[in-house]
Design brief:
alpha+beta; eight-stranded mixed beta sheet; 26 helices; 31 strands
Length: 844
Amino acid sequence: MNHILSRAFFLLLSSGLALGCAVKAPSPVAPVAAPVPVTVDSVKLPAPPTNSNGPYQPAAERLMDLVHTRLAVSFDWTKQHVLGEATLTLKPYFYSQNQLVLDAKGFDIHKIAMVRGKQQQQALTYEYDQEKLTISLDKTYTRKDTFQVFISYTAKPNELKAKGSAAITSDKGLYFINPLGTEPELPRQIWTQGETEANSAWFPTIDKPNERMTQDIFITVDKNFKTLSNGILVSSSFGKQGQKTDHWRMTKPHAPYLVMLAIGEYTVIKDKWRNKEVSYWVEPEYAATAKATFGRTPAMLEFFSQKLGVDFPWDKYAQVVVRNFVSGAMENTTASTFMEALQQDRRELLDKNWDHIIAHELFHQWFGDLVTTESWANLPLNESFADYSEYLWAEHQYGPDEAALTHRAALLEYLGEAKTKQEPLIRYRHTDREDMFDSHSYAKGGRVLHMLRKEVGEEAFFASLQLYLKTNQFTAVEIDKLRLAFEEVTGRDLNPFFDQWFLTPGHPELQVKHAFQNQTLSLEIAQTQDTLRTTVYQMPVTIAVLEGGKWQEKQVMLSKAKETFQLPVTAVPQAVVIDPKQDLLAMITHKKTEQEWAQQFLFSTAYAAKADALLALQDSKDPVLEVVLRKAIQDSFWKVRASGLEVLVATVHMQKPEVQNEVQRLAETDQNSAVRATAMYAMSTLSGLPVSIIEKGLQDSSYQVVSASIFAYLRGNHDPERLKPFLTYKNAEVVNALAAGLANSPQNEIYDWYLSQARRLRGGDLYYFVQSFGAYLLKKNIDDQERGWQALVAIVDRETMDVTKQAAFQMLTLMAETDDRKQTLLKLVEKDPKLEPMLQVQMN
């Protein structure tokens, strides 16, 4: 098997969601621009992590209070326009006002008038710069006055110059999918994405997170479409020319960025929680499996309501899947939106469980929707809680190992980002609000909440959250509101905790040494982080010591840059583990012998301690590694078995017949499909692997296992004709396995297949495919490249995920052998300047 195949397999098997806006768009492992190195005594060292240190970003000043929005919208699918009429009910917030300033991006304004009663309208003058709409009112209004303004407009979101971030890749606000019906593989849909301040691209509003309003939305569409919006469907009325108007009403106030609509030919699966409607909106093809994906939502509603002591606060909860979404998911009040990956067939359900993203968006209905951050600087008050809900649900539903896996993955995600940037969680100074949507606000924030839970105790943690939610419901908050709730419940001054974890950049970096002498274990812990940039942390640290096959735990308080702790023991410890359950947000380096690491693995019950030991031993030549790996691949937790197989495949122990028999057993019979897939890959590294073993994998019920078996089959140089039936599969893992393995195929049928997948795939799945497709195209002569060239140009033109677009563009730079093609590259760079550095590299 070539390098592309082996690398691709593990990338595909390990790829998942990064968390975002809700939740970030699914992202492949992306190349990150390296910081400029610094030189010390002629030795190049990595530059220290950056800090944005931008200007102070205040909460938006509130001049007007937007009380209610009445919105009537219809759509010109051909022009991709929104035809809207908005009636806004407002009042001055405190100071008297004679003008109204609204956010409205790229509109044609037709009429603006005061509303008097139901009929009377007085025209108003206004100024408009395509971003801000400044309306001169008919008189000065005081905070005791309420008035209404009517605006007739056309919104043209598709004509806006899109910006975005890694988490939310576009900010056009409203999106038409296949508006003319010319793409047979796509349904016709309209959907919105309001975070951060993008809903003002389709209706006029005060587009700030510290604003709140109720709403009535009237949506007019062809009667074959279903519509979804916030709140309750009040009525549907049918008019002429086959159209209908749905009236959706939201009676409880929420922020404008949480307004949504979705339009499409959906099948709606109805469910229920405590007599409230729960529904799942999917394309008809996935109606039979929607409940298998989303059906644990009522259980989540019950669990979170009881755990928080605050019942789910809204009238209904819907979840809708849309095509070509610009993020992973979004927590619109009462109606969350999800990317299309959550539409699964029955075989995909065997491989993927989307509970984490479903829990994440649901928890936002409390943290983000009921209580909303007053400014994007305080975004962790939304996202850290949603991130931590994934741990809470995994702990409740699937047990401590799955929770620990969720926790560790998030910790490593943050620590990876922290190599290049370190920010305070609450970031009053930043250059762009989109920068807040990073692994600090999500992964780091969730880990800080976990430490806060350990700091105050289980009962106090959830009692404090209950007080925070009840005290601040339907309001916008900053971090001090959370601290004050915890202080009121616990009676403690928690300023030191909040200061070092929420308001200070960085994290502890602990260097640990231990020694035994005279029945005493000496443990030296040094904090090696840059304490000028961050701080010397004060925190409890758990120390686990293994003696005679039994663990003893002791907690010490770390408060200095370097400390030594003395612990009485009866003999030389078999192993010493700092923070065995990985409760700390810290980078811990602890030098141990291979025997100590082995003992840590063999006797630990905590997933984190086992995972650390396997990682430390992966390059070991000590015979003890075989003992560890033989136990790892029989572990009760699937992730340990899979990790053991990943280490095993690169060792001499894989050549032993008894080990091979055990790996084959896992490939054929393990209950977990990821383990079966990893075992099949491990088997594929053996020379002369019988095709009968691979054939069983090709017939497995799991797409992951089929994908791994395709890798194994191609590595064995077997006849590719056997794989042709898999060319009809839509599953991205199977497609990418084939794409990586068929790059040398000369058949036009395969070329057509590559082209069809290039049109169909999106986002992270397309990222992997593009690299294989490029390798395929570069092996064909220039005359045959044109269709592939055009397919890659189309990907760069349409794709919103930066790393996918960049991967396609990079392939184009390698194929640009004519002046016409070079001109095409320049035009693509003109549309997206972020591509220019890649072009410069190629030109140089």
